Amino acid sequence: MKRLTTVLLFVCVAATSNGQDVSAKELEKNKDFKSLINSIISWGEIGNAKGVQGEMRLVTRSTKNGLDYTTYEMYTTGLPRNQSYALFSWAINQAQPEVVSPVVYITPNGTLCSAKDQCKEKSNVIFGFISTKGEPHRLALISKDGHHTLMVKVIPDPITGSDQGCNLEVIRATPKFEGAIIRGKGFKPNETIHYVSDSAGEVMTGEVGVQGDGTFVLVLAPFVKGKDIGVDTVKLQGKACAPTIKYKWGTSEE
Fold it and tell me: What is the set of domains in the chain, with CATH numbers?
């Protein structure tokens, strides 16, 4: 039997920006922005039931018009297979999740199929993403009876940095990096880290506390008044490491 392939292609359309210099404190007061940040950070990490997990496994990677183009298969664990699921996606330029497919099924190996009992050995649902650097894609499965949910997040083209076992990642919270999420791991538990952010020549310093598991989350607003585009270089100083990471803001194309 010929294998059918359903390609689900997500295209992120960048929102426009006026290049306004919004401070991190102002962003923290914005309830919608705080909700967005929490959703991106926790998606796929907090909220799934015990034993329920999802993994996006890379199939292909290429470049289209200068942007990263990747395809993935979703592998699930812990979800019942005796019913259908609705598949949702939530891009960072969308106010809320949207339905990608109203009906998918879980195959015996935990992947997805677009029709019941037609994919006993292989998935026929392939996810395609056109992404810019640091862009997260949030996906969710919700069972027909509403009792089972799986949330999965994938960042096809991550921005990372490391030093002496300390690792950093910058996640794009908004299409043009009006808000940037910096996540760290591998730091000394409960230490206080000093950071310096040099965004297009405007320097800001501060401190961030590390959790007991050696991780932290830092949210920055890199835009500088009078400039529409720039690079933010962030240097962090811990007890045993001093990693640096940089990202370009003001564009949704790189």
Answer: 43-154 (2.60.40), 159-249 (2.60.40.10)
